[in-house]
Specification:
heterodimer, A: 250 residues, alpha+beta, Ubiquitin-like (UB roll), Fumarate Reductase Iron-sulfur Protein, Chain B, domain 2, 2 domains, five-stranded mixed sheet, two-stranded antiparallel ribbon, 9 helices, elongated, B: 647 residues, alpha/beta, seven-stranded mixed sheet, 34% helix, globular
């Protein structure tokens, strides 16, 4: 096996943000832990090791530990990352961990992405809008495989929140849909099963909280752990907004 | 301190696919529904299902002629005849509807491409002309243990795509979800369930929720194997545990534990069966494709229990690659080519790149069999009602419904979540009426007080007892070493002894942290004894079952024994009782007589009575074990003898 293993024998230093809002005595501060690096060590392995051997009060979130569920977004040396798939062998000896900004803090590295994303889905009405009810006796409606693959490409977002945390606009405008929100809109806008018109989409995205709120830094595109084509998403939505505006004028 | 009381028509515990699909059905019928979930629903372990969802649509050439009867046959054979055949039949019929409904909800299923397509089949590249007529219908891929290509899929992110589509429906219907919330105890009076006590994982607060119907949909209990599992960290089996703790609701077939052939080492992360379905090979240390001679007919695509045993045997025979993490074998998908592995198997590409730094189009992937699926769970009747406790239901992996028997086929679990969710949702919708919850507040606060006192007990302990994590690791090692792929009476007895000692140790364990709020160590401590109880009944069930069936393989009893063991293990164990109580019920009505599965061993001990004799008192015996009356009598949905046309 060629392997992302380890830089042998390193002693790693973790500087971790600590604050427990449920504890009146707690104040925000950084705490340092040291750990011997082991082969294939990820932030998931390291944090569990620290919690189980050094400080059992440490709060963080993991579920699938396979970069599929999106639970473990956090700032790793200033970069929004999935903790589970970030290997210490790719990092320097000192590793600084902070919770993702924008989202409400639950404690230490744990933030409330669930509430944020549920509100985003409600705001964008992120579901298929179709008049016709499901007919259990009918064959499925056909779809071209290339169309299905294109929808899937954008459907792959795991709502980890890394893009939102990296976003200059989302950090100052709490109503901004954020890269993940705009991607979700594009995913439904390109789906032929969704009957919303360009005018409906115009309402959702053609304003400062939508695609015109983006200030173009494009950190989201660089940090997305699923490598979603966010650049293309904004281009697609701007074209859609424009054609809708043109047709209104006409 | 406890929070104020909530009430709802339907309480769904678990926000994965089975729970959410059930909630949709109940909400669409006009009920108030509340979902509790450990994590935001889209982070549930359903999202990790990769390769596919079985439904016999028969849309592509290699699926031509497929139908629910063939799906039923494969499922029963896969189960090694441990399944309830009526449930397997209901499932096979409704799986088609479930997949099409998901297309309606927005799942971007991979579609048939009319014209020439290139596939890998049994080591050969094959060109197949898909009909233009079927262009754009839902495509299938091959999976283990099936007669036809049947798994519907969205690249290798099927579970993700399905979960997002189903959760979108939940949001559309305005169903309330409380994430970061755990159900820690059922509220019940010994004959009826009235909801559950919740613990908030933001604040640590307990509060009661009264409900006319309560559904357990918490997934499997793979984490009793610690890190030796493909399961997420949240799959600790708490739904099954709180049902077991009532002392009246039995769990079924807890010893039926599936190992998936291709867990990535060292992390245990799943690599989909789609790798082999799409033509991948398993190789040993000598780069030899051992499955070809061991299973000439199905090769790498025999059922998971059979493939896992062959792999484990290779490693026992010294044919594994030795590493500091123990031996492994190789998964080889290089010949599928760069384009295929980065599109149709994209998630596999991502995982191997991110976690072991390999490129599957160029490198071999290190894998070994890893705990994967819990066939056992809360025993329910065909409508999804738990035995003995009215108002309690279960669906999905948390349930023992029981369509999987002793081995589940790949792609059948994703299909089960939606099919069972629909059916249990209908049952719940029909039953969640006509009850007053007013008189139950005393019961609710009593249960809440009880749950709180457990937390207080942990926080009040001092001294230098073992840590909860040490005990968890010891449990995991016992389970992996003594209750794994190959089992013997001697090792299982050692496992039982070790687990009983560890259970005692739980009462001596001490928290290192008394932090206010949810306190992650306390949160785990509250689950620890529950997990140990599940581990113990799994091990004792395996020790008692002196035969080999599906995933339960006893080297000291290597034959399937239909004369004595064509039955389902049931276990009840009240929190206060010193010993679990085991009993056995018939598997259900038999339509397809027990026989050879078509792979694996053809030797077995035959049923001594006739199928007619076996079937004569199934209903009566299951009722004696607490089965509640079903809407239609049992047997009404079996299509007797329909399989004869197909074999």
């Amino acid at each position: 096996m060629t392997a992302k293993t380890t830089q042998a024998g390193r002693r790693l230093r973790f500087e971790i943000f600590r604050y427990n809002p449920e504890d009146p005595e707690s104040t925000p501060h950084m705490q340092t832990f040291e750990l011997d690096e082991t082969p294939y060590m990820s932030i998931f392995i390291a944090l569990n090791e620290i919690r189980e051997k050094q400080d059992p009060s440490l709060q963080f979130d993991f579920a699938c530990r396979a970069a599929i569920c999106g639970s473990c977004g956090m700032m790793v040396n200033g970069r929004p990352s999935l903790g589970c798939r970030t290997l210490t062998s790719d990092l320097p000896d000192v590793i600084k961990l902070h919770p993702l900004p924008v989202f409400k803090l639950i404690g230490d590295l744990s933030v409330d992405t669930g509430t944020w994303f549920r509100e985003m889905v409600e705001k964008t009405e992120g579901w298929i809008h179709a008049q016709e009810a499901f007919d259990p006796d009918a064959q499925e409606t056909r779809m071209d495989d290339d169309t299905a693959a294109a929808i899937y490409e954008n459907d792959r977002c795991i709502e980890c929140g890394c893009c939102v945390a990296s976003c200059g606009a989302a950090n100052v405008n709490e109503d901004f849909l954020g890269p993940a929100g705009l991607n979700r809109v594009a995913r439904f806008a390109m789906d032929p099963r969704d009957e919303r018109s360009d005018a409906d989409w115009f309402e959702v995205v053609s304003n400062q909280d939508g695609v015109f709120g983006c200030i173009g830094l494009m950190a989201c595109h660089d940090i997305c752990p699923k490598e979603l084509p966010l650049l293309e998403v904004y281009g697609y939505l701007r074209r859609k907004a424009l054609s809708s505006a043109m047709s209104k004028r006409g | 301190m406890s929070g104020s009381l909530l009430s709802t028509d339907v309480l769904v515990i678990g926000g994965g696919l089975a729970g959410e699909r059930c909630a949709i059905e109940a909400a669409a019928a006009g009920h108030n529904v509340l979902i509790l979930s450990l994590v935001p629903p889209r982070r549930s372990h359903s999202c990790a299902a990769q390769g596919g969802m079985q439904a016999s649509l028969g849309n592509c050439v290699k699926a031509d002629g497929d139908n629910p009867t063939l799906h039923f046959l494969d499922t029963v054979r896969g189960s090694d005849w441990g399944a309830d055949q009526e449930v397997a039949r209901i499932f096979a019929e409704e799986a088609q509807i479930a997949v099409r409904e998901l297309a309606h909800f927005g799942v971007p299923w991979t579609r048939v491409r009319g014209g020439k397509n290139s596939y890998f089949i049994k080591g050969e590249r094959v060109e197949i002309e898909e009909s233009i007529e079927n262009d754009g219908l839902i495509m299938h891929r091959d999976f283990g243990g099936t007669a036809k290509w049947r798994a519907c899929y969205a690249a290798a992110g099927t579970g993700h795509a399905v979960l997002y589509a189903v959760d979108s429906e939940v949001v559309r219907l305005g169903v309330e979800v409380r994430d970061r919330t755990e159900a820690v105890e059922l509220i019940h009076d010994g004959s009826r369930c009235w909801g559950a006590v919740a613990r908030c994982l933001r604040t640590g607060e307990h509060y009661p929720i009264l409900a006319k119907a309560t559904v357990i949909a918490t997934g499997g209990y793979g984490r009793i194997y610690g890190q030796f599992t493909t399961n997420a960290t949240i799959n600790e089996g708490m739904g099954a545990a709180i049902a077991l703790n009532t002392g009246v609701v039995p769990l079924g077939n807890m010893e039926a534990v599936q190992f998936h052939p291709t867990g990535l080492i060292p992390s245990g992360i799943l690599l989909t069966e789609g790798c082999r379905g799409d033509g991948g090979y398993l190789l040993n240390r000598d780069l030899h494709r051992f499955m070809v001679e061991l299973e000439p007919h199905k090769q790498e695509l025999a059922s998971r229990d059979v493939v896992s045993r062959h792999m484990a045997q290779q490693m026992r025979d010294g044919k594994g690659v030795e590493t500091p993490y123990g031996p492994h074998l190789w998964l080889d998908i290089r010949h599928l080519g760069e384009e295929h592995v980065t599109t149709k198997l994209r998630e596999v590409f991502d995982i191997t790149r991110d976690f072991v730094g390999l490129h599957p189009a160029h490198d071999l992937i290190p894998v070994r069999p890893t705990q994967h699926y819990s066939m056992g769970g809360v025993r329910v009747n065909k409508d999804g009602e738990a035995y003995n406790l009215a108002g309690l239901y279960a669906a999905g992996e948390a349930a023992c419904w029981d369509m999987h028997g002793f081995n589940r086929l790949g792609g059948n679990s994703l299909a089960e979540t939606i099919v069972a969710g629909r059916i249990v949702g209908r049952t719940v919708a029909a039953h969640a009426e006509g009850f007053s919850l007013d008189a139950k507040t005393g019961l609710a606060f009593g249960a809440t007080r009880h749950a709180e006192s457990r937390a207080e007990d942990w926080l009040g302990r001092s001294g230098d007892g073992p840590s909860v994590y040490e005990l968890r690791d010891a449990m995991a090692t016992t389970m992996m070493d003594k209750v794994g792929i190959f089992r013997t009476g001697e090792e299982l007895q050692e496992g039982v002894d070790e687990l009983r000692t560890l259970l005692g140790e739980c009462d001596r364990a001490v928290l290192r942290s008394k932090a206010p709020g949810m306190n992650p160590e306390l949160t785990f401590a509250l689950r620890l004894k529950n997990m140990m109880r599940l581990a113990l009944v799994t091990t004792e069930g395996a020790l008692a079952r002196t035969e080999s069936r599906g995933a339960h393989y006893r080297t000291d009893y290597p034959l399937r024994n239909d004369a004595e063991w064509l039955n389902r293990t049931l276990v009840r164990w009240s929190v206060d009782a010193p010993e679990p109580n085991y009993s056995y019920e018939p598997v259900g009505l038999i339509d397809l007589p027990p026989g050879h599965r078509g792979y694996g061993s053809d030797e077995r001990i035959e049923l001594t009575m006739s199928v007619e004799e076996y079937n004569a008192d199934v209903d009566e015996k299951q009722r004696e074990h607490g089965k509640l009356e079903t809407v239609d009598p049992i047997g009404t949905r079996i299509q007797w003898g329909a399989w004869e046309q197909a074999v």
